[in-house]
Amino acid sequence: TYRVHFNMTCSIPYAPSAIPGVSDVITVRGNKVVLPSGGGSYAIDSNGRTQMTYRVSESGVSAYLVQSYQFTRSGTSGASVSGTGNFTFTVSSGGVNLGGSCKGTFSGNR
Asked: Per residue in 6-45, pLDDT tens?
């Protein structure tokens, strides 16, 4: 389990561009990043890298997320992770479309 902190900036109409930092947990099991709630898993390659892509489109909402991870070992038991994320979305309702995007970085330790 890695505890990580995300820093993001967004381009969303009528919203602030900077999003307060968010903390979260990344779970790694069997050399894979495992997503919560049955979201699947993504293999970590021999260089410590993996990339997650997630797309949803239903009921007037479409979203696309890409996160890239870099895992690094330090010493005999320490390990860290860093990476980037990009998120785009569109919401359509009553003939009105609202879209935006967010991008940022994250880092943390096991």
From this structure: 888 888 877 666 666 778 888 999 899 988 777 789 999 9
pLDDT number for residue 1: 86
Residue-wise pLDDT for 65-103, tens only, equals: 899 999 998 777 689 999 999 999 998 888 888 888 989
Contacts made by residues 105-108, CB under 8 angstroms, sequence distance 24+: 105/6, 105/7, 106/4, 106/5, 106/6, 106/7, 106/81, 106/82, 107/4, 107/5, 107/80, 107/81, 107/82, 107/83, 108/2, 108/3, 108/4, 108/5, 108/26, 108/80, 108/81, 108/82
Joined tokens for residue 87: 């998120």
